[in-house]
Amino acid sequence: MSNTDMSRRGLLKTSFLGAAAAGVTGLTATAAKAEPAQAADAEYDVIVVGAGPAGLITAITAHDLGAKVALFEKRDRPDGNAIFALGSICGWGTRHQKEQGIEDTADAFYAMMMDVSKQMGDKALNRTYTDNISEGIDWLESEIGVKFGKIRPMPYPRLGRTCRVLGDGITGGARLVQYLLAAAKKRGIEIKYEHKVIELIHDEKFAVQGVVALTDDGRKRFLSRGGVCITTGGFSANPEMVDRYIGGWATRMVLRGSKSTTGENISLTLPLYTKFVNMDQFHSGPIIGVTHVNPADVLNSGYGVQVNTSGNRFMDENNTYVVKARTTALQTVDNQAWVIVDSDCSVLDKVIPKFDRLHSPYGKADTIEELCKQVNLPVKNVQKAVDAYNKALAENKLDEMTPPNTYKKPHPIAKAPFYAVPFQGGMTATFGGPLINTRAEIQNLDGASIPGLYAAGNAAGGIFYFNYAGGAQLGAATVFGRIAAREMAARAKKAK
Question: Alpha-carbon distance 290 to 285, whole Å?
């Protein structure tokens, strides 16, 4: 017998044994499915995953509708992006607008929401937000006890639309979480801290029936008659997901928010053939990685030129701080840039004290040469950039520079002392996630709702694209958290 025949016979034998083994495995799997289902550790009407504003709002609303609720949080306290937020909620038709004589309409607000998202936000979801946000803000105030400050005039798109939570010494977002925690405690809502949900329990038709959580005592199963709402935020703190959905360059951005937003909205729902949308979209802003000083005011001031660590301009300084942060991360190897301004810059009295208070380095000198030496920038290139800017300004040719500068009211860089304010591109939050409908139900790839599965807050996809109006993320958490709660409470009552 030839070696070839022996090899063939060996291959056939191996294939046969492999097939047999596969058959045994298949029988084992079938037998396992036929066994009685593992007993649940507890059963509820509503399960919510993630104890940020969206999760707390969902849990409180469902409880007030008569549902038995459990709220799962993987950390030992709420640890999402909200605790870093200013705490503004963007809406129209509120008591505050009326008392301050601010005129607004639903159509104007909806048009703004769609404009900010470049007309790419889901129209039905943005209309639902518009139609329900006033009620949601009033509910936070009357039922939760949230105290809002006076609406301040702000540039488009906020205008007179943002109700800011009074922080009382902390961020407004953290204060909002405190209000909601107090309301949940008052109601006796069960919050299961250090319970990391790792799996959704579902039947053979993928109707969601509960969760599997990892606890100090191991894996535990919890069932829910009304379904499960995912309110875990996005995936900005998960480098693998950021790389997969946005790009490797974005993994080098400084994280501006929580380290706990690691993409459970994706990992938990992906096995159910969920439809994900806007996965490459996120909000960005400037930040200093080491000290977390936010230099956004100087970037928005309309003063100075922006250079990379080679001392060269690389974008239009008239861009918004969001675009500047994103472009800095995308176009520089080290995600590092500097704004060179003179002492006439109108916001230095707001920006520099923040740097001083947190011992965050910056440059200040009477000449551009000395300034560059302080912060280790190439003198020749920075001086060339400043001189070219001043010359183009004097000749009214800023728009002919490369790249162009499109300041509406440009100012020269001439009055000492000069400042070099550093910044890096930072990622605030991701916009992508499982697509929801107007009932907060998560959609699958076939265009149908996944029974018993809901999402709210930044865990949900479809509302935001490119950018968002300040305060709209907390607004969406309020609107769709309350909608999901109503849907699950009704579903649980029907199941009893």
Answer: 15
Long-range contacts at 56-59 (CB < 8 A, ≥ 24 apart): 56/177, 56/180, 56/181, 56/183, 56/184, 56/481, 57/180, 57/456, 57/477, 57/478, 57/481, 57/482, 57/485, 58/229, 58/231, 58/456, 58/481, 58/482, 58/484, 58/485, 59/184, 59/189, 59/191, 59/485
pLDDT of residue 195: 98
> What are the φ and ψ backbone dihedral angles of 300, each rounded to 5 degrees?
-95, 0
pLDDT of residue 26: 39
Give the dihedral sign, CA 194/200/201/207: positive
Name residues of the chain where pLDDT drops below 70: 1-37
HSE (side-chain half, CA atoms, 13 Å) at 167? 13
Contact yes or no for 346/409 (Cβ under 8 A): no
pTM of the model: 0.90
Cα angle 432, 435, 439 (rounded to 5 degrees) comes to 135
What pLDDT shows up at residue 37? 61
- Label the pairing between strands 69-73 and 190-193: parallel
| pLDDT value of position 3 | 45
Structure tokens given for 491: 């579903």
From the centroid of its chain, how far is CA 319? 21
Cβ 464 vs Cβ 267: under 8 Å: no
pLDDT given at position 8 = 38
Predicted local distance difference test score (pLDDT) of residue 34: 37
Which of 260, 264, 258 lies closest to 211 in space, CA to CA?
Answer: 264
Q: Is the peptide bond before 286 cis (omega within 30 degrees of 0)?
A: no
Predicted confidence at residue 27, as pLDDT, reads: 34
| φ, ψ at 162 (rounded to 5°) | -100, 120
